[in-house]
Amino acid sequence: MKIHLDSIGCRLNQSEIETMARQFRAAGHEIVAQAAGAELAVVNTCAVTADAAADSRQLIRHLARAGVGQIIPTGCWTTLQMKEAASLPNVLKVVSNLQKDDLVSEFNSESKIPNLEFETEPLARQPLPGLQRRTRAFIKAQDGCDNACTFCVTTVARGAARSRPLAEVIEDVNFALAGGVKEIALTGVHLGAWGQERGIHLRDLVKAILDQTDAPRLRLSSLEPWDLDADFFRLWENPRLMPHLHLPLQAGSESTLKRMARKTTPASFRALLAAARTVIPEAAITTDIIAGFPAETEEEFAETLEFVREMGFAGGHVFTYSPRPGTAASRMRGQIRLEVRKRRNRILREALAESAKVYRRKFVGRKMSALWESVTELNDRGWQMEGWTENYLRVRAAAFSPRWNEVDEVELVEAGEEGMKGRLVT
Ligand code: SF4
Fold first, then answer.
1. Domain 367-424, classified CATH 1.10.3470, yes or no
2. Is residue 413 classed as helix, strand or coil in its secondary structure?
3. What is the pTM of this model?
């Protein structure tokens, strides 16, 4: 069967869709880049903001208009709105997050197609058709979350925290490496909770990947600050672990963090960053912040802004607070007017952009390694490459030959608005 796969939202959704591609191929299906001509489409939907939910609905309608006769929506928006998802055109069935791991095997058995052992096929690095060939693989290590941050719909949609067995994660890492990727990115809903139900910690998984695989570059995706301690940062004594920490702050005001039910405070967050910078002084620390959380006063906003400036982040995302159905925050009094939320968002983005610029400037004149993710032919003598340094700086450089998926030493010669200009060190 010709199957089209698509996902909206986070790296976890992407990682899950890549796993489904591998499973469908193992059962003899063909993964096609375009919806037109596909007999089945699977869409991994997102509900993190109202816009993401709207994009999910729109994508399903678009696939039906493109002529896909059977559509299976899954993912967070689908899990929260099963009835609405089932009512959309050409929907064959809806699959919640909790059933998602069995989506392919169930589809095959319902279509009377034998379920070959998925392990038979390495995590084919044949890229998902239409998607850029991958230099980095997102490997799912964990799902769900036991916290109840009051703004968060993911914890509602993804269910209780659960960790994938270490051996399975190692197997996926080795499959991806066998497929040619040069970087592994570990991902999860609440990655820092990996292993908690077995009395072990994410550090054990990271150590195991560094010891038991040849991953040249290992990157960790978002980590909740309260899961980490000073000792955790000792892992970065291994240069294969990329010096980039994404630690969602969400707010820099203690009272706002309390209303968010976040298990951190400005003081503990500040201490954690100090501990991290003691071991990894030049680490890129990026973050997420919510602008305009319910009842956020001008004073609380000023505290958050001041705190963001103090932390010296290397970048991050600012989200305009979006009330999500089913979350405690959506029922809170003191909802802030949209234009105020947007104004606060703009001010926080400017502050983050400024500290990111300061961070980038520190590396002008330095030599770092870069993994090239895209190459463009400039003329008959040269190629333009774009990629990421180990501390997640976007860098562009020219070369005489295309160096896609190569890791090169590069001298950073200039800090631009968005990234760095580099010169290949030969
Ligand atoms: S820890 Fe993260 S995933 Fe869990 S409830 Fe909070 S924001 Fe949501």
1. no
2. strand
3. 0.91
